[in-house]
Design a protein that fits this description.
8-stranded mixed beta sheet, alpha/beta
Length: about 210
């Protein structure tokens, strides 16, 4: 599975966002990235951590991108312009992880999976959960060309099969074997506090962990 070059927007210029930006650039994609601060305030960080990525406002990132990856803290979800994201392929790389997010009762007390809650705030998007169950170090260091022995897999979950297929091509281009698990509800099997979370696995190992 391959992915042609496209424009990938990343909302979130922290550790995960800048690692994903580097992977996208290495795959030949154009990358637009925004953070919580003005573009001029993050431009130097982006130049150092993801040289070649373009620091813009979130509105500019969304408007100029074919695909948008969410890599911002969950508590910042309400700042996203939901209407602007309608119709976009949106990849959710976020998690509810108490050590960094603190206590968020709206996630902790909801029986739905984290990405199901996020998707409910972004109606009309072509929404896929992925890039969310490995730490940024593993994402940064474990990517390999297709067919490489021991290539690490990344799970994907989404209700739109076409969107999942497009997201899988992007995952593959970033250096990981895509492993679709089914509709978005199956994303619960690879969120925090599950056997698949935080452990690099091959496709066969990951399939067993999420089954």
């Amino acid at each position: 599975m391959t992915s042609s070059a496209t424009t990938i927007g990343i909302i979130g210029a922290g550790k995960v966002g800048t690692v994903l930006a580097r992977l996208a650039l290495a795959a030949g994609h154009r990358v637009l990235i925004s953070g919580s601060r003005e573009p001029s305030r993050i431009a130097l960080i982006v130049d150092v951590l993801a040289p070649g990525a373009e620091a813009l406002t979130t509105a500019e990132v969304i408007e100029g991108s074919d695909v948008v990856i969410l890599a911002l803290p969950l508590r910042s979800l309400s700042t996203l312009p939901a209407d602007a994201l309608r119709g976009k392929l949106v990849l959710d790389a976020m998690n509810y992880w108490e050590p960094t997010d603190g206590s968020l009762p709206e996630y902790a007390d909801d029986e739905r999976g984290t990405s199901e809650i996020v998707a409910s705030h972004l109606p009309g998007t072509r929404f896929v959960k992925t890039f969310s169950h490995l730490g940024y170090h593993d994402l940064d260091e474990r990517g390999l060309p297709p067919g490489s022995p021991g290539r690490i897999a990344l799970a994907l979950a989404g209700d739109d099969p076409v969107a999942v297929a497009e997201a899988a091509a992007i995952v593959d281009s970033f250096g990981f074997d895509p492993h679709p698990t089914g509709p978005l509800v199956t994303g619960r099997a690879f969120q925090a506090h599950t056997p698949a979370f935080g452990i690099p696995m091959t496709r066969e190992q990951l399939a067993s962990a999420v089954s």
